[in-house]
Design a protein that fits this description.
This protein is of the alpha/beta class. It has 2 domains: 292 residues, 3-Layer(aba) Sandwich (Aminopeptidase); 111 residues, 2-Layer Sandwich (Alpha-Beta Plaits). 36% of the residues lie in helices and 22% in strands. The protein is built from 13 helices and 15 strands. The strands form 3 sheets. Strands 1, 2, 3, 4, 5, 6, 13, 14 and 15 form a 9-stranded mixed sheet that branches. The protein has a 4-stranded antiparallel sheet with strand order 9-11-7-12, with helices on one face. A hairpin with a 5-residue loop joins strand 1 and strand 2. Helix 1 packs across helix 13 and helix 9 packs antiparallel against helix 10. It is elongated. Bound molecules: glyoxylic acid (GLV) and manganese (II) ion (MN) (2 copies). One manganese (II) ion binds next to loops.
Amino acid sequence: MSGLAGRFRELWDEIAPVGRDADSGGYLRYALTPPELRLREWFREQADLRGMPVSGDGNGNLFAWWGDPPTDGPNTDGPNTGGAVLTGSHFDSVPHGGAYDGPLGIVSAFLAVDELRAAGVTPVRPVVVAAFVEEEGARFGVPCLGSRLLTGEIDADRAAGLRDAAGVSFAEALGHRPAGADPALLGRFAAFVELHVEQGRALVDADAPVAVASAIWPHGRWRFELRGEGNHAGTTRMADRRDPMLTFAFTVLAANKEARLRGAHATVGRMSVEPNATNAIASTVTGWLDARAAEPDTLHGLVEAVQAKAAERARRDGTELTVTRESATPLVTFDGGLADRLAGLLAAPVLPTGAGHDAGVLAAHLPTAMLFVRNPTGVSHSPAEAATDDDCAAGVVALARVLEELACH
Ligand code: GLV
Ligand code: MN
Ligand code: MN
């Protein structure tokens, strides 16, 4: 193990127990809940240790500055507005998620700063480490909520009113109404580079520790609410039932089939049932469809087809269907010039991904790139997600080279 891999392990072990569920081995690090708040405190401690002042944006996102923190108004000096180079990721997890999705980008960013400093490199523009809030949307339903707020991609009032399963609003969890778009802060950044664990097997197949991202598939979340008639499981004749569970089951199968037909991805990984009793026909079933495809038209066709099939089945079952789009992320093509430059610099493969990231939101506002670190299991959003310390060290070296390239010349 290299010295850097050892330093990675040391820092990694500081956060490894935070929010870990002993039974599943996965993480419960929902945005603005105690484990995630502890990680945000750790972020401030790490920034402090490195003499990096931390600023917020009033939306729950944190920024640690190596170089001058923001003053009022966009920075206009120097080439490319003289802006800062932003890196980092998120701390929050999906339910029972893996350790690396998010935190790897933040830990690697602090270690990349250490590497540059140890090499005596001085940036000519600030390097900023970010921790974005609610990237997974696991608590308030909208993924990349922090970066959407910062960039104005979601209205601050809508975000403020999003509620978690216990009825707590995002504004309540944050302690105030989110500030919303901050063009002055965004104007301080010349580029964003997010390092992330790979969430599939492409790097295992390519036999490479690090890749550069080319694109993110367009994707979104749709809530299917199916209402029928709650009734007795023992006394209600089969012919008399209006059972939304049947419509739901058909919809899940239809989503799978329509996605396969198109080479797209459709998942129903979350549902709720009322009244949720073994001996009662459900009155309401709600399921969330996550749909993704390489092309926007394919995604659109997929969702239309699933909705049409669900509606047709609802007619046959005597149930009612309401479909609500909860979030949508368009196709993201990362800055081609930047991706090619980084791929050349790192001699790394270039890959598209079906996973969403804050980098996908920021890409519409500033030159953005992503680095992926090999995941030997290829599994993510699960406790089985993995990365070796040596590959994480390779990720840190790659990120440090990228930061040097973008911020030090
Ligand atoms: C985030 O990880 C997503 O792709 O849903
Ligand atoms: Mn994720
Ligand atoms: Mn992530």
